[in-house]
């Protein structure tokens, strides 16, 4: 096991997994000139995968999901910050574990790819809104892959709030 820890986020990765936690600037668009600039704000993004991650990838895994094979999975935890906490989309309190393999859907991929499936869960922890996005390399292998995802998610700690193993997964 290796430990990733940064900005109040800690997660344990099994041998053979790759991951990173980083703070990404939030771009602002000036549509009048078509340019992007940094707003001065940023968000924390966690990427964890059971395969080597490419160095260049988007917040929700673009660049990584395209190279996934049937035995691969990618997990993203995206911190939307305090403004999102407790809003309708982020009303679920706590880290949503365990995940149910039957809730994964090929139509939940940010960009649908053949044979893959995904899941998104929005939740609030310690006054911050988060999104958990999980992409599976094979919908057919979802039971084994989701078991691996749950193993890693059970080690997740967000700002001193570890997974509550007694809380059921939201619908």
Q: How would a crystallographer describe the biggest sheet?
A: 5 strands, antiparallel
| Helical/strand content category | mainly beta
Looking at the structure, what is the overall shape?
globular
How many structural units, i.e. domains? 1
Taking strands numbered 1, 2, ... along the chain, how are they ordered across the largest sheet?
A: 3-4-5-7-6
> What's the rounded overall pLDDT mean?
87
Tell me the fraction of residues in β-strands, as a range: 35-45%
Helix tally? 1
Which sequence of SSEs, written as H and E, runs from N to C? EEEEEEEHEE
Distance between the termini: 30 Å
Description:
This protein is mostly beta strands and 171 residues long. The protein is built from one helix and nine strands, in the order E-E-E-E-E-E-E-H-E-E. The longest helix has 12 residues. The relative contact order is 0.19.
Summarize this structure as a short list of keywords or feature phrases.
171 residues; mainly beta; five-stranded antiparallel sheet; four-stranded antiparallel sheet; 1 helix; 40% strand; globular; disordered C terminus
Structural topology:
Layout: E1 2-6, E2 9-13, E3 18-30, E4 35-49, E5 73-81, E6 117-125, E7 128-136, H1 142-153, E8 157-158, E9 161-162
Structure summarized in a few sentences:
By secondary structure, the chain is mainly beta. 7% of the residues lie in helices and 40% in strands. The protein has one helix at residues 142-153, and strands at 2-6, 9-13, 18-30, 35-49, 73-81, 117-125, 128-136, 157-158, 161-162.
